[in-house]
Amino acid sequence: MAIKELPVVLGEKDVVKIVLLLPGVQSVGEISSGFNVRGSPSDQNMFYINDLPIYNSSHLFGLFTTFNSDAIGEFKFYKNSIPIEYGGQLSSILILIKRNNKNFSAMGGIGLTSARVLAEGPLEKEKSSYLVSFRSSYSDWLLNQVDNLDVQNSAASFQDALMDFSLQLNKSNKLGLFFYGSRDYADLAFGIENEYSNLGTDIKWTHTFNEKLSSELNLQKPLCLRRSIQKLNI
């Protein structure tokens, strides 16, 4: 099933919904983006986007995934025989690979709680290309519609961005720069303020010696930040 054929929730397509169609995979809730593989806890699933590890894989307490499905071209999902380079997780590995379109295109969408935009294309034909994606919520207005003072005084929002640049230096050398970042913020009226974010960069240099031999050098810097404050209401 293609991503574009999936039903939408609050105006958003979700790549994880494809994984839930596979045997042995169960959702942890009706609207949650998490899943269990053969009964294992959801924290034993590891997510990668273009080989960059992502530690916070959901927005708004699991309502959305942190990945803009418009920017995803394909994925690989391992629930057994996990390759050794992804060792350490007991349940599964989900690897997302960005879309690769050599022609210029732009798309976007607006839902009940968020909006998204994506642009991609060549910088120089056959030599360089780019992809830029951004998504942001405006869910606070929805909280203000609830006839409850505590809910109206709460706040919840998220943003995520993805950027990829590829440059063909010459026939033998190719340089790629990939960036991903996301942020969630929630200030709940019953006294908990929570903020967490992903931030990562991947620089990849590929050198081709001949048709049968090539080398790849990756420099990665993944980062996960979390801040939680419990406030006393007097």
3D architecture notes:
- The structure is a single chain.
- This protein is mostly beta strands.
- The chain has three helices and 15 strands.
- Helix content is 6%, strand content 53%.
- It has helices spanning 16-19, 140-144, 149-152; strands at residues 25-27, 35-37, 45-49, 52-54, 58-59, 64-65, 72-78, 92-98, 105-110, 114-124, 128-137, 155-168, 173-188, 192-208, 214-230.
- The chain is globular, with a radius of gyration of 20 Å.
Spell the H/E element sequence: HEEEEEEEEEEEHHEEEE
- Any idea what the radius of gyration is? 20 Å
Spatial shape: globular
Span from first to last CA? 53 Å
Count of DSSP-assigned helices: 3
Mean pLDDT: 80
Placed side by side, the strands forming the largest sheet appear as 9-10-11-12-13-14-15
Secondary structure: number of strands: 15
How much β-strand is present in the residues? over 45%
Q: What is the subunit arrangement here? A: single chain
| Amount of helix | under 10%
Low-confidence stretches: none
Largest sheet: 7 strands, antiparallel
**In the residues, how many domains can be counted?**
1
Structural class: mainly beta
